[in-house]
Amino acid sequence: MKAFSNSLAFKRFDERYSFLKNILIMALSQINFDFEEDSKKNESKELVKQQIKPKSKRGRKSLKDYNIEPDVITVPEDEILFQKQYYSIGDVAAMFKENTSLIRYWENEFSILKPKKNKKGDRFFRPEDVKNLKMIYHLLRERKYTIEGAKEFIKKNKAAGEKHEMIESLEKIKSFLIELKNNL
């Protein structure tokens, strides 16, 4: 009787063992052990995510973006700048390639900026304000001053605008000479 019960127990054990073995084989067959293909799949998934979700242009730019982009602002020459009496905040923001909110923030921080406001509250910048914004942009973006440092620089150096104009004219001469050198 013991032999029968052992053989019956053995059959049950064997059935369970073969059942578990089949489950394990099926599970292992579904797992991919080729790690190169997995990395390729991950790369392709990341590419798909990047293609689907373009990076938002809203908000603050990262420091990498500031270092990558050249500091090319499109403020017209004085003769052209002073042809118009006022520039809207959108036009000014487009000249400096900045958000209008940043221009409003600079207006609140720097006392030399005094744009006119209509009844609706729209800001209109005079050409003098645009020139002052250009100096503020130069201090903050190109020379990497802090807001407080730029305020202090402007207060201490009443002739800061003249210095900035001198720097601009020297930069124009430099770019002209480099262009002339390249053409030779």
Q: Which short descriptors sum up this protein?
A:
184 residues; mainly alpha; 2 domains; three-stranded antiparallel sheet; 3 strands; 68% helix
Give a written overview of the molecule.
The chain has two domains: 51 residues, no CATH class; 121 residues, Orthogonal Bundle (Multidrug-efflux Transporter Regulator, Chain: A, Domain 2), CATH 1.10.1660.10. Helices cover 68% and strands 4% of the residues. The chain has nine helices and three strands; from the N terminus they run ααααβααββααα. It has a three-stranded antiparallel sheet. Helix 5 packs across helix 6.
Q: Specify the number of helices.
A: 9
Shape: elongated
Rg: 34 Å
Q: Largest sheet at a glance?
A: 3 strands, antiparallel
Task: Examine the secondary-structure arrangement and name the CATH architecture of the largest domain.
Answer: Orthogonal Bundle
Portion of residues within helices? 55-70%
Strand order of the largest sheet: 1-3-2
> What's the CATH class of the largest domain, please?
Mainly Alpha
Q: What share of the residues does DSSP label as strand, in percent?
A: under 5%
The parts where pLDDT drops under 50 for at least 5 residues are none
Order of helices and strands: HHHHEHHEEHHH
Number of domains: 2
**Count of DSSP E strands?**
3
